[in-house]
């Protein structure tokens, strides 16, 4: 009915512009969009190969009516129901399922078929958790009760997952705080500990100088002057050293 109404409106509109039947198709096809435009593009190419005049209005109208004019709304709902799958929550899936079911009036599916279709569309984990009636311990016999339990099961699992994620984030936060506190304590202790527990290191040059001075003192204390044989000084500092003890070997020759 929609396609026929559109075609009738288009003929009337084109007639107002004094458009003859042989020239209706080119302007009319510019108003096609989406799937209708794609279909006419493909069909017209195939018809042209077969030698059919694609500028003929009757060919144009018949092609659109065959593709879109004889659709059965209930059959469309049945087809969509057969392939419907849960992609989000069970509640969203159940709403879509029941909306499509409401469109099937003439020959609605049996309760058993609906139970099977609804179960098949659920995610695998929900199928396993909610496919048995907990009261009877057998397969479900009532669609609405099945839908209610499946929704409740999904909501409970979602809440549990949300709580676990919140707990994990809390634990991570505590761990981060503990680590930061530990690092802060280390930073606070290092300057204090180093100033008390570790004596300042003397330079190597200073240490060597002290060793040399100590060796000299030890030598002076332990060794006697070879002139007077008294300890505490070297020969050049001996008070008993004879005067003019230096010899000029050049003059001596």
From TrEMBL:
* Keywords of the record: Metal-binding, Zinc, Zinc-finger
Entry-linked SUPFAM superfamilies: Retrovirus zinc finger-like domains
Region annotated Disordered, chain positions: 158-217, 232-253
Domain CCHC-type residues, every copy: 225-240
Metal-binding found in the keyword field: yes
- In which domain of life is the source organism classified? Eukaryota
Which terms does the record give in the GO molecular function aspect? Answer: nucleic acid binding; zinc ion binding
Q: Which InterPro entries match?
A: Retrotrans_gag_dom, RTL1-rel, Znf_CCHC, Znf_CCHC_sf
The protein here is known as CCHC-type domain-containing protein
What species was this sequence derived from?
Answer: Klebsormidium nitens (Green alga)
């Amino acid at each position: 009915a929609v396609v026929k109404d559109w075609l009738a409106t288009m003929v009337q509109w084109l007639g107002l512009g004094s458009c003859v039947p042989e020239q209706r198709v080119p302007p009319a096809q510019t108003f096609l969009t989406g799937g209708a435009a794609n279909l006419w593009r493909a069909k017209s190419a195939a018809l042209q190969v077969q030698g059919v005049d694609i500028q003929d209005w009757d060919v144009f109208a018949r092609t659109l009516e065959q593709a879109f004019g004889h659709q059965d709304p209930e059959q469309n709902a049945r087809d969509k129901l057969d392939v419907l799958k849960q992609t989000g929550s069970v509640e969203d899936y159940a709403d879509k399922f029941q909306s499509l079911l409401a469109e099937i009036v003439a020959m609605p599916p049996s309760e058993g078929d609906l139970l099977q279709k609804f179960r098949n569309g659920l995610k695998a984990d929900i199928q396993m958790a909610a496919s048995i009636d907990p009261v009877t311990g057998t397969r479900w016999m009532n669609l609405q009760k099945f839908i209610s339990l499946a929704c409740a099961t999904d909501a409970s699992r979602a809440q549990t997952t949300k709580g676990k994620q919140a707990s994990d984030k809390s634990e991570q936060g505590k761990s981060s705080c503990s680590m930061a506190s530990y690092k802060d304590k280390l930073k606070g202790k290092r300057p204090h500990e180093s100033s008390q527990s570790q004596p300042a290191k003397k330079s190597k040059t200073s240490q060597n100088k002290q060793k040399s001075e100590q060796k000299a003192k030890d030598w002076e204390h332990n060794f006697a002057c070879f002139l007077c044989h008294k300890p505490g000084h070297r020969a050049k500092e001996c008070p008993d050293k004879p005067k003019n003890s230096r010899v000029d070997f050049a003059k001596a020759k």
